[in-house]
Amino acid sequence: MKKSANISIFIACLIAGMSLTIAQEKVVPVFKDGEAQIVEGFNDASKWLRHDLFVETDFDTDGDGKMDRMHVSVTRPAQTETEGLKLPVIYVSSPYFAGVAPNAEGLFYDVKHELGDTPKKRTHVEVTRRGERPVISNSHIKKWVPRGYIVVHSSSPGTGFSQGSPTVGGDNESLAPKSVVEWLCGRRKGYTEPSSMEEVKAYWSTGKVGMTGTSYNGTLPLAAATTGVEGLEAIIPIAPNTSYYHYYRSNGLVRSPGGYLGEDIDVLYDFIHSGDESKRAYNNANTRDIELANGMDRITGDYNDFWAGRDYLNDMAPMKAALLMSHGFNDWNVMPEHSYRIYEAAKAQGIPSQIYYHQNGHGGPPPVKMMNRWFTHYLHGVDNGVENDARAWIVRENDRQDNPTAYPEYPNPLAQEVQLHPVKGGEKVGALSLNKSRRQGKEKLVDDYSIDGASLAQAETSSHRLLYATPVLNEDVHISGAPKVTVSLSSSKPAANLSVWLVSLPWNPDSKAKITDNIITRGWADPQNHKSIREGEPLVPGTFYDVTFDLMPDDQIIAKGQQIGLMIFSSDKEFTLWPSPGTELTVDLAKTTLTLPVVGGAKSLKSTFK
After folding, report:
1. pTM of structure
2. Tens digits of residue pLDDT in 503-522
3. pLDDT tens per residue, range 244-276
4. What's the gap between Cα 374 and its chain centre?
5. pLDDT score at 24
6. In 332-474, where do the E strands start and end?
């Protein structure tokens, strides 16, 4: 009996010890193959803690004499409260969370007027604010909270319950997320209410913050990163607008973003201004009707100090957050140059950088695996080797977006510039040759905005465009980088639009055609700005000017059996202003060139022409 009793006591003690061990086990992030895994203890949404607060900034943009406070919401696992667990933060900021203006008639500018004329007045529309505290947004929480992150959202200045005024690229839109990051790192105060002095502390944060988002929500991570704020370790901007000039203008030309004909920076202000109704009159009078109206210059389209102040490329010196860019090569809203220019600058500064490009349109994040590895390394500190991964990830034409091809760099290091020259016959389809000839003469086109670019490209003959094409390719041709054109032209009027499309021929008119089947890339310019985008000069009819500019960057494989076509025309129905038809452009073919970045260079391209 004594022996039996001792065994019973031993078993009881063993069970008690096991229970104690189990009770002491804490839920922590789990990593496998360099990625944060979904943890069952973090995955029950009913146990997530959700609350909001207001972070005080160092600016007053709504004129009430008080520092503006940003509305912030937090979603975190219960273990950050019950077990004292600290986790890194994935932070998303946006001007869209509280609703946007209806697309009312007259909200956009009327694009039908002569170049250089004062635009007609447009309609101002009020935003009906929506949303209830404490939830600002549910985006990203299902993806990241179960993987061991805290997800934070904030409304940008003058939107939702955030105080201040929207400025559409002004300094406060960089300083607002900077302030939130500082609060997450314990260096700035947050409060329970917009006017309360009761503090809220981010005791559950490790002080490691990453940001992501798409479009405007992708712009704000870059805006925050350009402040150099400590604690913002990594950003993944998706289709970000990195320069409002490049969004609303092209090489001195007034140009709309694709799908939003007649939009401009003050239209976007009206579209997002969902903040405190009592502050809107002040904000409208000072921000929209003075700062934006006086700076945007919709008449000439020239670059100026106003636009320079809304170009994040000019602010990058302090930036150090690791950068994973994401963009679509066929994004004609926020065009692919936006990410390319920032990626190039980040590399030059020695910032850890990678770029992911897909072949579709606006939006489109990198695969979850890529994002996970990026945040796992830079926020959790896991040595997964992501910094040694390929620098460029390109989704090939027939592949899924989650299956990109790795390249050592973008543009492809094997790409070399190849110069091509138009051969007379552009009213039908002239040749595009590797050989330059001085005897091609001049050819003319007549502007007519009513004919869209797709129709011009398909026309067997047209007086409204000039089209030149390579021989039929007998092998695939890989283009990687930003093509460049020089168009030597004269105009019958002092002002004219200039549009250039690079197309794949024959054009596939099928409604089910792939997005890469027809348009390779595009570009636009104002010939008046042939010397400088900061200052144009009226064109003297009959005088020739050399207009040189980049087309949008691309990485595309043009299939054998196709031709690469250079189409030159004037007004682009989908993007430019619509002056009265009839302006004549005369192109000097001998001084007009297309420079293509071809993988394998001239030798490779020449071999496909045989």
Report:
1. 0.94
2. 999 999 998 899 999 999 99
3. 999 999 999 999 999 999 999 999 999 999 999
4. 19
5. 57
6. 353-358, 392-394, 405-407, 415-422, 430-433, 442-446, 466-469
User: Looking at the predicted structure, is the pLDDT value of residue 451 above 50?
Assistant: yes
Question: Smallest Cα–Cα separation from 533: which of 300, 333, 322?
Answer: 300
pLDDT for the residue numbered 105:
87
Identify whether the C-beta of residue 323 lies closer than 8 Å to the C-beta of residue 102.
no
419-430: per-residue pLDDT in tens?
999 999 999 999
First-to-last CA distance in the chain?
100
What amino acid occupies position 534? R
For the chain, give the percent of residues with pLDDT over 70: 96
Q: Do residues 503 and 494 lie in contact, with contact meaning Cβ atoms separated by under 8 Å?
A: no
Q: Strand pairing partners for 487? A: 547
Q: Could you give the dihedral angle defined by the CA atoms of residues 459, 460, 463 and 468, in that order, rounded to the nearest 10 degrees?
A: 100
Q: Which of 195, 155, 201 is nearest to 177 (CA)?
A: 155
For residue 168, give Cα distances in angstroms to 54, 61, 127.
21, 13, 16
How far is the C-alpha of 365 from the C-alpha of 394, rounded, in Å?
13
Distance (Å, whole) CA 152 – CA 161: 15
Summary count for the chain: helices (H), strands (E) = 14, 29
Q: Which residue has 């990626």 as its token pair?
A: 343
Residues designated as active site: 215, 331, 362
d(CA 578, CA 561) in angstroms, rounded, equals: 36
Pairing state between β 150-155 and 87-94:
parallel
pLDDT in tens, 1-41: 444 555 454 444 444 444 444 445 899 999 999 999 999 99
Would you give the DSSP letter of residue 192?
Answer: S
Torsion of CA 513, 514, 515, 519, to 10 degrees: -70
Collapsing DSSP to helix, strand or coil, 231 comes out as: coil
DSSP-derived 3-state class of residue 267: helix
Strands (E), 244-318: 249-250, 253-254
Q: What letter does residue 576 receive in the DSSP assignment?
A: B
- Per-residue model confidence as pLDDT tens digits over 62-78: 999 999 999 999 999 99
